[in-house]
Design brief:
With 398 residues, this protein is of the alpha/beta class. It has two domains: 208 residues, HUPs (Rossmann fold); 181 residues, Elongation Factor Tu (Ef-tu), domain 3, CATH 2.40.30. The protein is 25% helix and 28% strand. Strands 5, 6, 12, 13, 14, 15, 16, 17 and 18 form a nine-stranded antiparallel β-sheet that branches. Strand 15 and strand 16 form a beta hairpin. Helix 1 packs parallel to helix 2, helix 1 packs across helix 6 and helix 3 packs antiparallel against helix 4. The longest helix is centred in the first third of the chain and has 20 residues. The chain is globular. About 2% of the residues have low confidence.
Length: 398
């Protein structure tokens, strides 16, 4: 009998995952990971660790499986939270959930599970895994979940073949309503529990307050860039561009660069590193005809640039760039050779509809050029690359 350790979080998804595995004949054990203790910046009631442990324990008792907890908080802080602070300080916007899966759930947790004799680890992610044989070698495919509204493959975009070989995703073939029904039918304690929100293992946070634990506030100017800013016209004058040329690709993928004299001061902020592209809340700007959105930040000058209206050109770009050392191939056998290109589907944030694009591999890295301009391309976020519904690679946006 194969032993599986399930990351039992107290939520309905991991609870049903444990139930399905036990029903399939696995020797199932439940493990709750304690990865956070500090409540600074956490909105009250959104990270009830004690309640989650209680619910997870009740689920384990109902399913008659062993249950235990383990504290990974020190390594979580080092690998995920310190990285978050560092990225925000440099003006980039990280995705802690992707890091949490890569560094904690499918690394530290997986190693602990194997140490405890597990053959596999399992989670309640809405995604699927398949295996194929190519050149006499087993290759694991990471596929989108059947429920397209809940597909969580994006969060697993940094996993490796080794990690996938030891992973199980029992609810990937189900829709959320089916998962809820199973939980209710089995009278599991998590059946009516709301889905978790916020940073992985931390909860829903007031991000500026959370970041102020390490990042200092610093007053700066908010400058509004007009819709007719010359830089937008110049940046997108690419009708005759030859996309196999690195200089043209670089030009197309560059983020807009603004100067204070390009617009007018309309307010103050407490630190440019607290803001990200596309952000609307927290600006405190009134008196405009349309709502303001962040379209750029200058960390060195401590300036936040905004544009008026959700269709402002500063929110949109045609392409992005990923450095060679920041690209990660789940499917190593599909790795793109230099000076080659391939048509793919890409998403730059969770739950975004997959976007048609082409990847161009050049000496300096990977350029992703979209069929349509994309809103809110943000440095530090992950671009996940698909062929049909298979996630083949990902990378950190420069």
């Amino acid at each position: 009998m194969k032993k599986v350790i399930v990351g039992l979080s107290g939520g309905v998804d991991s609870s049903v995952a444990a139930y399905l595995l036990k029903s399939a004949g696995y020797d199932v054990h439940g493990l709750y990971m304690i990865n956070w203790h500090d409540t600074a910046g956490v909105i009250k009631g959104t990270c009830p660790d004690e309640d989650d442990i209680l619910v997870a324990g009740l689920v384990a008792r109902k399913l008659k499986i062993p249950f235990f907890t383990v504290d990974f908080s020190k390594i979580y802080y080092k690998r995920v939270v310190d990285y978050m602070f560092s990225e925000y300080q440099s003006g980039r916007t990280p995705n802690p959930d992707v890091l949490c899966n890569r560094e904690i759930k499918f690394d530290v947790f997986m190693k602990k599970a194997i140490e405890l004799g597990a053959d596999y680890v399992a989670t309640g992610h809405y995604c699927r895994k398949e295996s194929i044989v190519k050149n006499e070698k087993i290759i694991y495919r990471l596929l989108a979940g059947k429920d397209k509204n809940k597909d969580q493959s994006y969060f697993l975009c940094q996993l490796s073949q080794e990690q996938l070989s030891k992973s199980l995703f029992p609810i990937g073939e189900l829709e959320k309503k089916e998962v809820r029904k199973i939980a209710h039918d089995m009278k599991l304690a998590s059946a009516s529990k709301k889905d978790s929100q916020g940073i992985c293992f931390v909860g829903k946070v007031d991000l500026p307050t959370f970041l102020q634990q390490k990042l200092k506030t610093k007053k700066g100017n908010i400058i509004k860039i007009p819709k007719n800013f010359d830089g937008f016209t110049v940046s997108y004058n690419h009708n005759n561009m030859k996309l196999n040329k690195s200089e043209e690709l670089r030009r197309l993928s560059k983020s807009y660069k603004y100067m204070p004299e390009d617009g007018a001061e309309v307010g103050k902020h407490n630190g440019a590193h607290f803001f990200t592209i596309g952000q609307r809340k927290g600006l405190g700007i009134g008196g405009l005809k349309e709502p303001p959105f962040v379209i750029g930040t200058d960390i060195n000058r401590n300036i936040v640039y905004i544009g008026e209206g959700k269709t402002h050109a500063g929110l949109f770009r045609k392409a992005l760039f990923i450095k060679n050392n920041e690209i990660h191939w789940i499917r190593n056998d599909l790795e793109l050779e230099n000076n080659k290109n391939i048509s793919v589907l890409v998403r730059i944030r969770y739950r975004q509809t997959l976007q048609k694009a082409k990847i161009y591999r050049q000496d300096e890295g990977f350029y992703i050029v979209f069929d349509n301009k994309q809103r809110g391309i943000t440095s530090g976020q992950f671009a996940a690359i698909y062929i049909d519904d298979e996630l083949i690679a990902s990378g950190v946006i420069e």
